[in-house]
């Protein structure tokens, strides 16, 4: 289904469903596989929308997806928004029904990039401080669906002012793409 820019296959797209919205938007529902090939836990960040946008963020939602075991994720909201999940060292996990918004005319090909980093900061605080409870690191072999994920908490910046999203440490990026076969 997908091609990856890295030999290690940090990101593999297994399936894509397109749900048309009010033009010019659509909802892409992806089944993806993410891998953390490092010897330490890392955050995997996917863009909140495609094509990705630059800009600040103003809120973080804590999501809990049904497991087993349950998986805690962060949906970071704003122009530079992302979906973040913490992966254990050496973990390869599968996420079903990852929802991304597509803006613009229907493309022939879509590219998706994942960023893997040691730490994420929203403004001056680490991402963990924005979440309800401990996000924990998702273990190797976890297979989870985001359809029906519960929003446990939503925390906003003061006055909903956009703050920078900063990635700390070495950033590893992997890109995978897929062809859009029809426009229905």
Quote the average pLDDT: 90
Largest sheet: 8 strands, antiparallel
SS field, number of helical segments? 1
Strand order in the largest sheet? 1-16-10-4-8-7-6-14
Low-pLDDT ranges? 1-7
Beta-strand content bin = over 45%
Radius of gyration: 16 Å
Describe what this molecule looks like in 3D.
An 8-stranded antiparallel beta sheet has the order 1-16-10-4-8-7-6-14, with no helix packed on it. Strands 2, 3, 5, 9 and 13 form a 5-stranded mixed beta sheet that branches. The protein has one domain. With 184 residues, it is mainly beta. The chain contains 1 helix and 16 strands. The chain starts with a strand and ends in a 5-residue tail after the last strand. A hairpin with a 5-residue loop joins strand 6 and strand 7.
Short characterization:
The protein has 184 residues and is mainly β. Helix content is 2%, strand content 56%.
Present the secondary structure layout.
Elements: E1 3-4, E2 11-20, E3 25-35, E4 42-47, E5 49-50, E6 57-65, E7 71-78, E8 82-87, E9 92-103, E10 109-117, E11 119-122, E12 125-126, H1 127-130, E13 143-145, E14 150-156, E15 165-168, E16 172-179
Parallel strand pairs: 5-9, 9-13
Antiparallel strand pairs: 1-16, 2-3, 3-9, 4-8, 4-10, 6-7, 6-14, 7-8, 10-16, 11-12, 11-15
């Amino acid at each position: 289904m997908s091609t990856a820019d890295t030999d290690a296959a940090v990101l593999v797209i297994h399936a894509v469903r397109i749900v048309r919205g009010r033009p010019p938007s659509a909802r892409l529902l992806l089944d993806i596989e993410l891998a953390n090939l490092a010897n330490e836990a890392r955050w995997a960040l996917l863009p909140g929308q495609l094509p990705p946008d630059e800009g600040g963020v103003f809120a973080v939602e804590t999501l809990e997806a049904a497991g087993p075991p349950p998986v805690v994720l962060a949906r970071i909201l704003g122009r530079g928004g992302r979906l973040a999940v913490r992966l254990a060292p050496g973990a390869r996990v599968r996420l079903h029904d990852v929802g991304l918004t597509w803006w613009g005319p229907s493309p022939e090909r879509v590219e998706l990039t994942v960023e893997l980093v040691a730490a994420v900061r929203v403004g001056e605080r680490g991402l963990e401080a924005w979440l309800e409870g401990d996000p924990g690191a998702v273990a190797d072999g976890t297979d989870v669906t985001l359809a029906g994920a519960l929003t446990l908490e939503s925390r906003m910046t003061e006055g909903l002012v956009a703050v920078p999203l900063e990635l700390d440490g070495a950033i590893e990026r992997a890109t995978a793409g897929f062809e859009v076969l029809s426009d229905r």
